[in-house]
Amino acid sequence: MHLQDPVAVEMLQKFRERIEASKLLEVEAGDPIRVIGNRGIVNPENLPESALSKHLETLEKAILAGELLELARRPRSSRFAGQIEGQFLAYPIQIVFHNIGWYLGYEVTAGEKAGLLEFERLDKLCLLSKKSQTRSPVEQKQALDRLTTLYTASPGIFLGKSAEDQRKYLDQKRRKSVEMKVELWMGDQIFQFFIEGNQRFAKKQMKMSKRPNEVTQERDPLYTLEKSGDREFPNRFQVKLPKWSIGDVDLKRWIIGFGGKVKVVKPEELVEMIKQEAEEIVSNYGEL
Known about the structure:
The protein is of the alpha+beta class. The protein has helices at residues 6-22, 56-65, 137-153, 163-170, 188-196, 249-256, 268-283, and strands spanning 67-73, 87-98, 101-108, 117-121, 125-134, 179-186, 206-208, 235-242, 262-266.
């Protein structure tokens, strides 16, 4: 679920809770009709005071002012391979709620990853210091536009490890050099989930087989792929993604979530990755 302004949503929720607790309105609160099902997986009460998620006001002011910050990943916090170790300089750009928690989108300004746009969970970061260096609102807006483009094009919060690859993707003339085409095949039952979930990715990135049981329909460019010819997996789904998506755990979880009902056809690297995951899962249970 994409929240247009997650910080405002959190503030509104806190305000609502306090108003209800104060009983100023003297109205019986009924069961909510609409709720947001996603919730953070981290208990903020268990975090040290240094965690960035406990300094939101300072962070928000830094985003608005375009302040350069010295950040660091919290010692002993979980991390993926290739993430920046130790302290680093970055411009904070936006706070986003994605699936399981609150993330900070930022732009690294120094070192071998200078220019890299990245997200990290707020609870994993701590603020070491605020630098005197700032950039203009125009530069902040341009960085936000780049961050949004990369986030929208990707299957999850992971935006790769290369600033150069990101620059190529943001350049329409060079984008193809850092794109990959993912193709999945599936039976009719699972294909219905793909048809209904046709906003999982940007529409211009996707193609799939014609919807079944429709004799006449307008020629929607989304449903133009020929059938696969495979009796067990006759329906096809394609999506163009940035090449760094091969390392996105959200993409892998989505595919593996269908179990044996979906077959990965390309790219070969993703085929091998899913096969290896499946073999490791089977090996965990030994001989049953």
